[in-house]
Amino acid sequence: MLTRMGLRISAAEWAELVAEWEKGGRSAASFAAEHGIAESSLRWWKTELARRARKEAPRRSPGPRRGAPVALARVVRQGEGADRPERTPKAISVVVGRARVVVEAGFDGKLLREVIEALGGPR
Predict the structure, then answer these.
(1) Which phi and psi angles does 103 have, rounded to 5°?
(2) Which of 28, 59, 60, 63 is deepest in the core (most CB within 10 A)?
């Protein structure tokens, strides 16, 4: 349930809004702005209501599976840890999906970007 100007909007109210939007032939952006709702919410509810009408199971987020390992990284700014050089890593690992890329000092930034893109990482 989302809010419109601080008020909760039920699924039934979303159904009315979506029907009004579809009947009127206006763009989602202008309809949403006029009604004080997010365009993305309007579009999501259109899809959600259609899914409910087909009696499909709720869709899950495409995010990581529950229980899947999460790769963490520690960012070290230049100059940090200078008093303990023996603890400064000589290389870091970058995890993209199931691949692990080891990056050593003096790496080629352009090549690293190309490798990450080839592995399906950020573009």
Answers:
(1) -115, 120
(2) 28
pLDDT tens-digit readout, 8-64: 788 899 999 999 999 988 999 999 999 888 898 899 999 888 888 888 776 665 555
Token look-up 């159904």 returns 15
For residue 75, what are the CA distances in angstroms to 80, 101, 121?
10, 16, 19
CATH of 2-53, one of 1.10.10, 1.25.40, 3.30.200, 1.20.950: 1.10.10
CB atoms within 10 A of CB 80: 10
Show Cβ contacts of residue 8 under 8 Å, excluding neighbours closer than 6 positions: 1, 2
Domain boundaries, the chain: 2-53, 62-123
Query: Most distant CA pair in the chain: distance in Å?
Result: 68
Please work out, in degrees rounded to the nearest 5, the angle formed at the alpha carbon of residue 67 by the alpha carbons of 62 and 73.
85
Residue of 18, 26, 21 whose CA lies nearest to 52: 18
